[in-house]
Amino acid sequence: MSSVKILAVDDDPAIRTLIHRYLTQQNYQVESAGDGKTALELFEKFLPDLVVLDVNLPDTTGFQLCKQMQSHTGVFVLMLTSLTGEEDKIQGYDMGADDYITKPFGLVELGLRVRALVKRRGGAPPVKPENLKYGDFAIDLDGREVKVKGELVALTALEFDLLSCLAKKPGRAWERSDLIKEVWDVEYIGDERVVDVHIGQIRKKLNSDSAIIKTVRGIGYKFDVVEEKAEEKN
């Protein structure tokens, strides 16, 4: 795990130091910052794989910082905050957060959430580059790009993983728990409704309410292909 780099951002020195020390003990490379300006400077130099990001910062919000960071790279973001309202979580996911943990938190839980995101980052690539095409909708699994009518759609890393998971098996009805095991990790211990939030964001970005990803009542979701067959190009 020594090659995995994590940036911890929190304005509370005690919490920041606690996170830094704990993650360092887990053999991650860790840098930390107490405000948005310092965090962005370190982000550009350190190029982290994962950011543990507090929402309340003295010079900005974690929501805005998350959006800025993910506009440049597909970095994973774990939001860390004392805000517990569902609307706050939805805002975090809307800005691109991959996971969300509330204060007070346990270091073991933090470690599990981080490890789950790191596993997703380090997943084995397909043996051969693969493209999926459904009419005007195309997924480049090797290049991690999604296009609709030739136009690139900006998805977060987690949104891409979720969409491609569904698209690889069109017509299959996925339960939320199965999607979490496949996309997040079997160790994910958050609310299963996180799937609903991310599906909503994907639909919005694809400018599609339910044409591509359909809700299967009482079960979950499926990738729906109408009169189109997936074309795999190696």
Task: Explain what this protein looks like in three dimensions.
With 234 residues, the chain is an alpha/beta fold. The chain folds into two domains: 5-121, Response regulator (Rossmann fold), CATH 3.40.50; 131-233, Arc Repressor Mutant, subunit A, CATH 1.10.10. 38% of the residues lie in helices and 23% in strands. The chain contains eight helices and 13 strands. The strands form three sheets. The protein has a five-stranded parallel beta sheet, with helices on both faces. Strands 9-8-7-6-13 form a five-stranded antiparallel beta sheet, with helices on one face. Helix 6 packs across helix 8. The longest helix is centred in the middle third of the chain and has 15 residues, at 107-121. The chain is globular, with a radius of gyration of 18 Å. The two termini are 31 Å apart. Mean pLDDT is 82; it is low at 123-129 and 227-234.
